[in-house]
Design goal:
heterodimer; A: elongated; B: mainly alpha; 0% strand
């Protein structure tokens, strides 16, 4: 049994998850992850690029352009994974009003937008020699383009509001509405007759490609995921510092106002 | 091993543009962090602290 305390709980009194999610504690523990993440991402990226260019065969149908897939697939995965993180954070903001959830959502948006842009660009550069067209308004491509617009809209909204707590609530609702696009992207290839191929990696009956192509794909997949994690951690730290600086500046301004005769 | 002359421009174009975007994103992420760190350090150097830091007794 713990004694009831009259004073506010310190972070030490909180449970494990509340403690690691406390912004001050996040700043403390996340700093130890930055350099290890740099190392892991760099090693995986170097190994992935080596496999992609020097140690994997050309595809019998796609030819050499299959190598574009080693950037395209991980980017497309991150585009959706990042949105899933933002949607989870949105629930955290709305249900628990957790400050770190807002920070996580805001930090993720520019990363998601960049990886979505990479997925679209590499897809177009793969499509030109393989399909004979850079772009087709099919289900997968159109829904991914909409995803990019949703990301850009969310980034713009974060910059529109001065009060970031209020912004967090409003953007959380919009993020959850936009989350409908994630299953649409995923199942677009099954629901509609798309030029884009159906799923070939994450399938119930296993991937439909040989290990020589699957290995570089998986290494690059993890390289991109660790890179994302690294950038997300740094961006979250940035956002916490920004909020602290803003809070101090606001308090100082208030102090100056009250001191006036 | 990659064979030359087989849509190399598309492959290198895809890798080049991806690398460019990732590098620009990384630089932006790191510079933003440094900017906020400097901003907070300047405020601290001016003797300004958050209300919680001013009143809170640091737990051992």
């Amino acid at each position: 049994m713990t004694e009831s305390k009259s004073q506010e709980p310190t972070p030490q009194d909180l449970g494990f998850f509340s403690r690691i999610a406390h912004p001050g504690y996040f700043l403390e523990w996340s700093r130890y992850f930055i350099w290890p993440l740099v190392g892991i991402a760099a090693i995986l990226m170097a190994y992935g690029l080596y496999l992609a260019f020097f140690n994997s065969p050309a595809d019998y149908q796609q030819g050499e352009t299959v190598r574009i897939m080693y950037v395209h697939v991980p980017s497309a995965w991150l585009s959706q994974f990042c949105y899933a993180i933002m949607a989870a954070a949105a629930i955290g903001s709305l249900v628990w009003r957790h400050p770190l959830a807002d920070v996580s959502a805001k930090a993720a948006a520019p990363l998601g937008a960049t990886f979505t842009a990479i997925a679209l660009i590499t897809g177009a550069l793969w499509g030109a020699p393989t399909w004979g067209t850079f772009w087709e308004w099919d289900g997968r491509m159109t829904s991914t383009l909409i995803m990019l617009f949703i990301y850009l809209g969310i980034i713009a909204l974060w910059r529109t509001f001065e009060d970031q707590v209020r912004a967090g609530r409003i953007i959380a609702v919009i993020t959850l509405v936009g989350a409908i696009n994630v299953p649409i992207i995923k199942f677009s290839v099954d629901w509609w007759n798309t030029l884009h191929q159906p799923a070939s990696v994450f399938r119930l009956d296993g991937p439909t490609m040989p290990p020589s192509i699957l290995l570089p794909l998986f290494v690059m997949f993890f390289a991109f995921s660790f890179l994302f994690l690294l950038l997300h951690f740094i961006s979250m730290r940035t956002e916490i510092l920004r909020r602290r600086a803003r809070a101090i500046e606001r308090q100082y301004a208030q102090q100056l106002r009250t001191q006036k005769p | 091993m990659i064979e030359s002359g087989k849509h190399l421009e598309y492959i290198f174009g895809a890798y080049g543009l991806s690398a460019l975007l990732i590098v620009l994103l990384s630089i932006w992420v790191v510079l933003s962090y440094k900017k906020q760190k400097n901003r907070l350090d300047t405020l601290k150097a001016m003797g300004l602290k958050r209300r919680s830091e001013r009143t809170q007794i640091k737990p051992e």
